[in-house]
Amino acid sequence: MKIFIQLSLFALLLSIAACKEDFVNVDNPGAISTSGYPSSVADLEQLLAGVYATQHAPSIFGHNMLAKNTYLWDHTTDLSWQGTTTWIQLAQNNSQVNDDFLRGTWQDLWRGVQRANTLLATIETYGPKAAASDAAAISLIKGQALYLRAWYYFYLTTLWGESFLIDGQGGDKMGVPLITKASTSLPETQVSRATVKQSWDFIVSDLKAAETLLKGKSWTGATDKYKMGEWGVKAFLGKVYVYTQDWANAKTYLSDVVTNSGKSLVPFNTYKDMFNGQNEFNSESLVELNMNVDMTYRGTSDLSMGSSIGMVIAPTYVGTNGAQAASAWSNVFPHAKNIARFGFNLGHYYPAGTTTANVANVDKAYITRSVAARTNKTVDPRLWVACLQPYVDSMIVSGVKKPISHYLDISEIDMEAWSFRKYLYLGGAEGEVNMANGSNILWLRLADVYLLYAETLTHSGDNVTALEYVNKVRRRAYGYPVNTPSAVDYKTMADQTSAPDAVLKNDPLKYERWAELFGEGHWWFDVCRWKIGDKEAAYYQRVRGGAIQWEPTDYAQPIPINEITSNVNIKQNPGY
C-alpha cells in the first residue's frame, strides 16, 4: 500500500498539468510533464493506486465517513462530545449547508471522480501508443477506474440526490452533476445537476463497462487483493439494482454472485473479529477497502495508509480510581436505543439511584446476568460484535487489560453508554497506532448480498427462498451451520425479531439488515430507500444534544454552501 502515498500526488499533478493557463496557472519546475508521463503500464498502475487511495481520503473513509455522517443520520450513534453545534445538528437530522464535515466529504468524493477521469483520459491517450502485449493489462486498469468512478458517484448520488427511486417514481428529481472528463477550464466545472435517474444510469453504465473489462478476473496476490475483480463489480451492480428497484436485474446479478462466485459466509469466530484488522480478504469479502497501520502519517492525512475513524469512536475504559478514561478522542458512542434493539433488556449496570460513574458502583448481579445471556445467546450475539459492554468487556491500553467504562462525559448515569467495537484496533488504544488504524473496511460482503437477494426474491413472490437466505445470515450469527435449519430460524417473513420497536419487531428482513450490518454504514441508505426516516426518528426520539427534528426532505443532504456560491448552475436541495 505504500504506493498509494505516491499516487495521490501523481493523479493531482497530472490533472494540474492538463489544465489550461486561463484556468489555473501553476509554475512548478518539479511538476510531471504529460509529454513524458505516463510512459509505461507501471505509470498507469501508479495513477490507479491514487484513485483507490482517495477512498480513504480524510473526509471519506480516512476519517469522516460513518461517525461524522451516516452514523448520525440513522442514529447508529449519539454524541458524548457536545462542543460542535453542527455535529449535533447532523445527529438531529438537521444538517446545515455550512457543515464542514459535509463539505469535506463532497470535495473528496469529487476529487475521486476527477482522479478517475484523469486516469481514463490518460488511458485513451497512452493506449494507442502502448505495445500490443500491454493491452490486457491496460484493459484491467480501465475496468478498475470505471468501477472506482461509479463508487464515488454512488456516494454522491445516495447522499445528495434529491430522492431515491421508489416504485418507479423520483427519477425526475435532482441527482448530481455528471462530469465525465478531467476539467481543463472553469466553465467545465459549472455543471448543473442531472436527474436522479440519469445519475443512477451513469453508475450502472460505468459498472457494466467495468464488468466487461474485468470478466473472469480475480486478484490473489498479496499486494493486489484490494483490487476490483469480476465478482465485486457484479455484487455492486446487484446492490445498485436493488437501490433503484430494478428487481429483474437485481435478481440476475445477485443470484449469479450467490451461486457462482465461490464466496461463503465465514464462521462466527472469524466474523466477530474481521472488522478489527483480522481475517481480512476472507471468503465472505467481495469489496474491501485496504488499510494499513501507518506510523508516519495519521489517518487524517491524505498521505496516510490508515484510517482515523477509530479515534472518533474510540472506547472509554476504567482509569484512575475507577473513573472513566478516554482511549482516544472518544467523541461518539452507540445510541442507547440500539442496545435494546439487539434484544438486551437485562437492566442497567448501575443500580437505581447511582450518582457517580465508577466501577465500584456496578451491580454484580448485572455482570452475572450479562455473561449468562452472552453464553446462552438469549440476546443477539451481534450486539457484542458491534459493541463493547461496560464493565463486562475489556480493552488493552499500553499492554494492560482495562474494563470498558460507562462512556466518558455521559452525565446521564442511567443511560446505556456502551462503546463501539467494529473498526477499532483491539490490541491497544488508537493513539498507539498513530491514529492510523489498519482495519480494512468490509464495504460489501456476502451477508449483505444474501439479504439483498432475499429482499429481491420477495418482489417476485418467492418468500420461501427469501426466508432461507435471511435465516442463513441469522444462523451464522448464532453459531449454527449456515445451510441447515436451526432452532433460531424465523418461521415466516413476519416472525418476531429481537427488536422491541414497531419498525423491526415483526420484519426479519429489515431487522437482519440492521443487526448484521450495524456500524458498517449501510443502514442510512436502507432508511432512505424504504422511506422509514419518520418511523426511525419516532423510535430514537432524541440525541443528547436535543430532539430529533425529522422532515421529509431530510433524506437528501444539503449541497455545501461553497459549491452553491461557486457553481452558478447548481441548485440546492429542497428544505435547505
Automatic annotation (TrEMBL):
Leader sequence segment: 1-20
Gene3D superfamilies assigned to the protein according to its UniProt record, in alphabetical order: 1.25.40.390
Domain of life: Bacteria
Stretches assigned to the RagB/SusD domain: 418-576
InterPro entries cross-referenced by the UniProt entry: SusD-like_N, SusD_RagB_dom, TPR-like_helical_dom_sf
Every SusD-like N-terminal domain range: 39-241
Xref: Pfam families: SusD-like_3 (PF14322), SusD_RagB (PF07980)
GO cellular component: cell outer membrane
Keywords carried by this UniProt record: Cell outer membrane, Membrane, Signal
PROSITE patterns: PROKAR_LIPOPROTEIN
Protein location: Cell outer membrane
Main location per the UniProt record: membrane
Family: Belongs to the SusD family.
Record's protein name: Starch-binding associating with outer membrane
Organism: Spirosoma fluviale
